[in-house]
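User: Predict structure, ligand WTA.
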Amino acid sequence: MSNFHIKHLEEYFQVYRKSVRNPEAFWEEIAEEHFLWRKKWDKVLTWDFNTPEIKWFEGAKLNITENCLDRHMLSRGNKTALIFEPNSPDEKAQHFSYKQLYEKVCKMANVLKSQGVKKGDRVCVYLPMIPELTISVLACARIGAIHSVVFAGFSASAIASRIKDSDCKIVITSDGSFRGKKVIDLKSIVDQALEECPNVSKVLVVKRTHQPIEITKGRDLWLEPLLKEAYPECAPEIMDAEDPLFILYTSGSTGSPKGMLHTTAGYMVYTAYTFKNIFQYKETDVYWCTADIGWITGHSYIIYGPLCNGATTVMFEGVPSYPDFSRFWQIIEKHKISQFYTAPTAIRALAKEGVNFLENCNLSTLKVIGTVGEPINEEAWHWYDDNVGQNKAPIVDTWFQTETGGIMISPIPFVTPTKPTYATLPFIGVQLALMDHQGEELKGNQVNGRLAIKFPWPSMARTIWGNHKRYKETYFSTYKNMYFTGDGALRDEVGYYRITGRVDDVIIVSGHNLGTAPIEDAINEHPAVAESAIVGFPHNIKGNALYGYVILKDTGESRRQDNLKNEINQIITEQIGPIAKLDKIQFTSGLPKTRSGKIMRRILRKIAEKDTSNLGDISTLLNPECVQDIIDNVV
Ligand code: WTA
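Assistant: Predicted complex:
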């Protein structure tokens, strides 16, 4: 029996050593004993970080949905696979058993097939957190189509650029979405996006809000009647281990978003194995992750990881503040949640509202509580521990990335002693390194550097869709023979890791990754703007908020700065989405630049943080005189 479920610290160290000493043998054992294969692999791992090329379980044949659904039919056919908790507490929750979910996925798969979708085709899924989102994702996987889920908060132009980048032929969306008090007109956002995407030939529309929408004849189809007619069985497409499973876009420090490509077998093995251990999932538990399926956390830890383990997974359509700030806690009580997984930004927002919202809710079913997406500050950690975990349910602070597919650093609950703000130890099979400024590995404990990974793990992204060169440059060119994460981290005296934040131009706002470049591009489209630079500054709820330095064109007009601020945020909302709006905007006449013309964001960051004590040597700048002016006018 392999070590699928780790139960104490000694066992963790022992299994970790085994996984590092002989990774191939270790992962082979896990893969062999816990998954359904149509054919076993010929080779466990082929890798070269220079090319870079990574292949896990080459030669194996499988379908991930057989692992998520079919194989549970006999043992857990009537067990609840998915609980849907709607936006409004007045609407009834829906429970889907494994058998029902299986049928719904097969029907959706047959609908996709009837619309001409084939293995390898890209399908854009732009849906709110409703069951059809999970069903669509699995239906794509069923027939070997590559899903590209776009978070339903993104704007028309953000969708359009993603659809074009991966050349999706079909979009699945809904008439609208409910979010708290708001009803959002999703379909018209899609319509607007598709003006730029002539290759999209079909739009399948889920009815959710029942608001009137425009139907483009020949292109748009309501899903409901198609599903009604569809056959509830669909033989899975048999996939190669390295066949693509999905594309998920993430922001980069420069340029357009990167379409991270994940493949089938390694992703399945790693997400299932991490899920089982990091949440210590037991058969009767009800697990709830509050992330949106539009992000990697939702892909790996609402859908694939839990379903591969035969778990009951909850998806929530709404927001933590509606109808009031007790919503999360009431859901925990209502569904008797055992594992609760959320983001630090949500914890901070809820903590601010006070414990009275928790007091009347029964949280005693919680066994493990988790956080993900950004560093958690000490105060929020303790609030979570005291009030939600009630000092009984351990906190798993889980570090990972869209690129890593699965959780890479995390305590194992009841196994790894936790430490506030620390993601603690590398997960099994994960070989971390901290690097100094010279590119040398920092050995030993009590060191602080940049986080890299020395050896492949099964769920790592294999490329950037359509741009392997960028994949190599972004992740494998900073350090020789290592994957570079873009994060800084420190290792304490016992070897625990704490993530200190991004070291590149990616800013994490409320747990969402935002690249500075696309936001600056959007701002620069305003006719009055000559140039701009975005930095993050600490914000007590969002973690970071955005600060924009903007140089206006000299048009001779008097500056209507308040209007301009609104207009700039409006453009950002249209180009990217409301999550990228600026909290502060400072109009300035210059931006500090190096002699080669690169904006010195480090200086701008310090000024935005209102810490000008140590700006470093500014005399080498091209235009040092602008610095004082910026400091004097900081917002
Ligand atoms: C940050 C989200 C500190 C980190 C799963 C990473 C974290 C980026 C943590 C990836 C954590 C994620 N502690 N920082 N527990 N988890 N991050 O791709 O900067 O949306 O590089 O994946 O989020 O964001 P992404």
